[in-house]
Amino acid sequence: MKIKQYVSQINIKPHKKNERGIPKYEIYQAIISKNGINGDKNIFRSRKKNDPDKAISILTDDIILQLNKENWPVKPGHLGENLTFKNVNYSTIEPMQIYSIGSTKIQISFACVPCSTLKVLPYIGDEKIKEFTKTLINRRGWYARVIKPGTITKNDLVFLL
After folding, report:
1. CA dist 135 to 64, 70, 93, 118, 147, Å?
2. CA quadruple 51, 110, 29, 16: dihedral positive or negative?
3. pLDDT tens digits for 35-54?
């Protein structure tokens, strides 16, 4: 029997002056456009002229669990991801894969790289940022392009096409 793969959390952070884009907080449903999730302000993406290859960011629950076991109290949305996938093995995600989620389709672009912005998380700070950044190498998440806009709701199934 195949294990159900689904969106366990949808995360956004609206733009607020003098605030970073993390941690993002949970919403139940999202409208997805070619530029990403409506209402989510990603400063990094906007500095790159809304690069469509960075419209959505994804992380899997297995990475969050690994980080927790290593004493990093990461929660969904902390690393800036818009979508947290449950029961999708992080190591199976690759560039060019297409996923159908809700009424949308997204295509994996490339892996995210760790950034110094993460030091704003209360358990990181300046003194631990180098260690945390090293910990996140090859585990920071994935960027995806929106190839079919639509709506995603929490618990929507995730299908690799």
Report:
1. 12, 9, 19, 12, 31
2. negative
3. 999 998 766 555 556 788 99
